[in-house]
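Sorry to interrupt, but I need a hand with the structure work. It will help me judge whether the discrete encoding reads sensibly. Write everything out right here, beneath this request:
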Amino acid sequence: MAVLAYPGMSVFETGIVTEVFGLPRPELGVDWYDLRVCAERPGAVPLVGGATLHTPYGLDVLAGAGTVIVPGVPDVTADPSPELVAALRRAHRRGARVVSICSGAFALAGAGLLDGRRATTHWRYADLLARRYPAVEVHPDVLYLDEGDLLTSAGSAAGLDLCVHLVRLDHGAAIANAVARRLVILPHRDGGQAQFIEAPVPPDPGDDRIAGSLTWALAHLSEPLTVARLAGQAHMSTRTYLRHFGRATGTSPIRWLIDQRVRASLALLETTDAPVEEIAAAVGFDSPVTYRHHFGRAMLTSPSAYRRAFRAVAAPLSDNGGSVQAEA
């Protein structure tokens, strides 16, 4: 795995990637990623704030990685260098998974990788991306998009969601959730969730009650859960709860519950041989038909196909087996 460092970048941009993939995690009991921080020209890379990152790795290492991550570009109005374009194209032709965070989508688009494909970027850059690269199908309102070999995400925090999504793809729900807990972030935010909420949530006690009701709901997913019951846990009227819930999460309680139940079922599909009917009941769906319907909408596959695909990925990934190999 390789992440691109470039002059003028924020430490946080590359820090997202190094935090998720670069730290050794022996406690998880799986082969972890071998992450290399690369630059167009090996050596010193000036960062925001006057710091300097030093790396011995260049575009040859980037192009040879199994997963290539571009966390941003120095100028969204400029074309990526011919050298970077060549490296990204070479990686993609080899079958590498190419990933962008925030403005990094401009590098992928500049290399022609996103032509005819869905992609996203930070909402403030979405119109510019669409204008500069009309062959790209830009979706401005989502956190991230997974096109298989090409994955793009919105602003920095959405990059964390996409990185955890990659861990989930590679190692399953249980490992991804463990990483999320260590990062103190939600185990999963669906890629189709809105990038931001128009009306910010006021810092009032109601928000704490919403959070408490969500925690309670996660511990009772197998039970019948209604909006009235959730509102009761928050000590609010149903109408007040719906208003606060929408502001706090950007979705409705029912949509949130469906998403959480689908996500809770992933670990059961991955780690047990329980029939789909039992799994549907265990996570709170009233019937296997309802479960399959919502699973298909969320995961773009069936529960049985997901189980088969997950268990088929048994060989160690080429990106595993080490830690960050750059110094700052």
Q: What stands out?
A: The longest helix spans residues 253-271. Residues 158 and 242 are 25 Å apart (CA to CA).
